[in-house]
Fold Autophagy-related protein 16-like.
Amino acid sequence: MTSLPTFSSSFLGRCETVGTLLGSNAGVMSLDVNTEETLILGASNDFASRVWSLQDHRLRHTLTGHSGKVLAAKFLGDSNKVVSGSHDRTLKIWDLVSRACIKTIFAGSSCNDLVTSDGFGSNIISGHFDKRIRFWDTRSESSANEISLQGRVTSLDLSPDRNYLLSCSRDDTLKIIDLRMNQVTGTFCTGGFHVGCDWSRAVFSPDGEYVTVGGGDGTVFIWDIKKNKVERQLKEHNHSVVACSWHPGGSMILSCDKQKKVILWSDF
């Protein structure tokens, strides 16, 4: 069984475990927290998604039905609905009240990541192994639109104002897409940056002015969006960095590599 620790950061610069989320039987591929910050959602390689309570760290829901690894899951609109994306080439929408799948969407390719682009639970954007980003209206059965990239899509992230979408792909580039025009407005790449795996996660900073991603050599890259230049390269990992996350205040970054080493960066 895979356990998922939760941490708090002390003023002495140390991270202390405040709880462990149990229940997953394989690697946890993505995490999401509901808007009320009471529940945490995890997508797992054991073909399931799970919901835990943040207050007591208890497992509340186990969502099974995919026939492949679940690579991404997000709360959809409110805390009672979840959307998950899987290697089985489907997206599934779940009702947590009835604990049942209420809709299955055949996406045509393995889904490596997804985001929900509005607060009402009607719009989903998914990134796929076939190098496409697909846009879905949950009230329809087919994709409303799609954008083709030059590499397998490994991650998606929304800007704080939800007007821009950040993608990471295996052609070793990050791209920013203006969702109002469905056009790529920025491409970020640099010498030495290589995407290390099919689930490398890139993210916006909380103020929307920077993008961050980990490289295959263990370097964490921070780009200034307006200048389109690398602002910082953080070097401490010895293995491929698969995920980064900003502190909500923008003062710290957490990075995790393939060998389960997690680093908290500040004053960078």
